[in-house]
Amino acid sequence: MTTGGERGRTAMRAAAKTNGAIRARLLTLLVLLPLLITAFASAALAAPSATSTDTQAAYLAAQLRTSPVYVTDQLPREIPRSTAPDFAKVAQRTGVPTYVLVLPAQATTGVDLLDAVHDRLGKDGLYVLIDESTVTEAKAYGVRAPAEDAATVAFYELPYDAGPLLSFQRFADAIAQGAEKAAARAESAREKYNAGDEPADLYIGPSDRENQSTLTGVAITGVPLLMLLLVPYVRRWWRRRPGAAPRKAGQQGKGKGKGKSPGSWILVALALGTAVAIALTAPLLFDQTRSSASPPPRAIDLNARLDRVAKGLAKDPVYADPESPRVLDTAQLAQLHDRIEKFSSSKGGGPVFVALVPQIYEDESQGDEEAFTAAVRDKLGGKDGVYIVADPLDGYINVFNYGLALDTYSAFFDLPESISYGDSKADEADDHLLGERLDDLMVILDKTARTDEPTTPGDPYPAADPITEDELRPLYYGEFWSGLFLGVLAALLFFGLAAAVLGIVRVLLRRRNPEPIPTSELPRVSPAAPSLSYLRETATTEVRAMTTAFGTGETADARSRDRYEATMVLVDEASAAGGSGEELDALRPAALVVITVLARATRAALAHEDTTRCCGVNPLHGPAKSSRHVRVSTEGNRRRMLPLCDRCLNDTAPNDYPALLLTLPAPDNDSQRTPYYEDDLLSAAPEGYTKLGRKVRESALAH
User: Fold this and answer.
1) Are strands 69-71 and 98-102 parallel, antiparallel or unpaired?
2) I want to staple 354 with a disulfide (CB 3.0 to 4.6 A). Which of 204, 247, 318, 632 is the partner?
3) What is the predicted pLDDT for the residue at 644?
4) Minimal CA–CA distance to 350: which of 459, 460, 458, 456?
5) Integer distance in angstroms from the first to the last C-alpha of the chain?
6) Distances (CA, A) of 463 to 41, 104, 221, 369, 459
7) Within 13 Å and on the Cβ side, how many CA atoms surround 648?
8) Contact at 8 Å (CB) between 152 and 179?
9) pLDDT higher at 437 or 231
10) Cα distance between residue 164 and residue 580, in whole Å
11) Is 60 exceeded by the pLDDT of residue 14?
12) Could you tell me the pTM of the whole model?
């Protein structure tokens, strides 16, 4: 029989055992809690990258469910969306289910994207990825198709300017031939290409057409005139040569007093017939009408992306391009919405529209963020607010204020480069750290001073007409008329002196009295890897020419004087180091390039030429015509928006830009070279002459 004391002790032991179990569970939970937190944190950090791929792939897979061919609306100047039926027709030649994605090159991750889209779509077939120029990736899933060999055929058998549709046609034809023939064809094409037998370009550029017009004009006047001058001269020389048989008396007086001989009239008739023949055959020889394979876009093609973005912004102030990799995770997107709402409700604030959309040279705005923003705002009914364009591909951020009373000029025009362009960490990150940079931008926006009057930028610089930009001028137009005059000069020069003698005399005169190279010749003759002696000689020549043109400066305007003074800051540094304006040996290579660039800019300003920037690939190329995203390194596929000269803009293939990039020699070793933009002083060259001059003055003050 159990006593009361025993029952109490038993109850106490049970309670102690229970409390011990509870304490053990709590201790176990405390030990596991950090591990659980770490696991959840790791999953949260890993989520954005997976979401980034899945979001893009899911969108593209959804488009392929509607149609097996999807053409982006972001490349209307190169591949209008209206060409989708043409791609679909070609896809039928393969003989297997074919799914085609036509996307901007920078927006894709190659075969990884095809894998993700295939997983999302869940259908076997041949998946093809095409960019602005060619077939870039292809992979067969569950079907037999020589995808890799066909892509090799399309790449090596066609020139770069063949265009994406012709590239896809060549690809589809190779697929239809079967694996054995496609492999042999790919190997043959690769061997020819490696042996230097590259396919010739299919199209010419505007400068090529100008050359054709000039050549036609020169031939029409130069060849007949040379016939009229040279044939009688050779005839007389032959008759009067030493040892020639003397003419009979009757022959010597023949034809005198009776006008021109029949032979003279025949020569005139032949010369006129030659001119007519050249005029009739030149259009048959130079029969090109377009400079690109891209067809003219329709109005619906040019408005498709603008309508899409405007529709998205009308529903949500943040629009992320679904065709591009995702750069904002859920937390960053929520924080950005909170920032926008806070600014909108603040005193003097207003709406903020953020477009995470690529800006590509082939888009409807020609890669101009301001033109794109103005067009989207127009689609939104002219809504006022702050418009932010963030490129998810290259990470650039641009801000425009329409109608809000903000001190735009102080806040937006001098944004830190870490926000506008990103730093080295942003360049290395897949998302370009856009979430953090947009958050920093909203902080600046919150702190922007309010003004009494609203601010609105002027009209953006008009982009080239997408309908006519690829049309070549008629052959008998423009430079043809100057070619007629040049033909007369060429005939006279050829008749007077042999071309070789003239070339030697010209070289000797140029060496004795050096003159600056004409601006039009700079892109063709300026080296990409100049020696230190070349930089010194060129800078000395340009300083001498600038000083002569500037004179006393009485007729110089403010722009000319500003550039002149910035140039002389560096010249004075050479003088302080023991040299002079004629002896720039004390300056380092980057300073010599800056002197050359600013001296040329000064002379251009004195001549009232409206040039504001130099070529960003090679500042020695002279004035820039327009800007474009280009590759500046053979490593990777990252591009930079740079101003380009006429040659780099029209006559250079995308893969040739790294070879044209200006590199600088070490002061004591020409073999050690570095890209010019790595120099702090010269890095401001692509930003314009004004900022370059400001950089020179800041550098001088720092020393």
Assistant:
1) parallel
2) 318
3) 95
4) 456
5) 103
6) 47, 20, 38, 11, 11
7) 35
8) no
9) 437
10) 56
11) no
12) 0.60
**Element containing residue 65 per DSSP (H, E):** helix 4-66
Tokens found for residue 644 = 């380009």
Contact 472, 290 (CB under 8 A): yes
Residues 6+ apart with CB under 8 A from 675: 632, 661, 662, 663, 664
CB 123 within 8 A of CB 99: yes
Q: What is the DSSP code string of 576-630?
A: HTT-BTTB-TTS-HHHHHHHHHHHHHHHHHHTT-----B-SS-GGG-B--EEEEE
Nearest to 98, CA basis, from 83, 88, 84, 106 = 88
Dump pLDDT digits (tens) for 277-328: 999 999 999 999 999 999 999 999 999 999 999 999 999 999 999 999 999 9
Residue with tokens 């001989």: 261
- Average pLDDT value over all residues in the chain: 85
- Provide the token pair at 668: 């004591």
SS3 417: helix
Whether residue 441 contacts residue 399, with contact meaning beta carbons closer than 8 Å, is answered with: yes
- HSE-up of 376 (CA within 13 Å, CB side)? 30
- Cβ atoms within 10 Å of 551's Cβ, excluding its own: 10
Average pLDDT over residues 382-409: 92
Q: How far is CA 296 from CA 201, 374, 462, in A?
A: 20, 23, 18
SS3 state of residue 663: strand
CA 132, CA 158: separation in Å to the nearest integer? 14
SS3 for 256-277, per residue? CCCCCCHHHHHHHHHHHHHHHH
Select from 401, 340, 391 the least CA-distant residue to 369: 391
Question: How many angstroms separate the CA atoms of 464 and 366, rounded?
Answer: 8
Helical residues (DSSP H) of 240-315, grouped into ranges: 249-252, 262-285, 299-315
Neighbours of 36 (CB within 10 A): 10
Tell the residue number behind the tokens 């043109």, with chain if given. 549
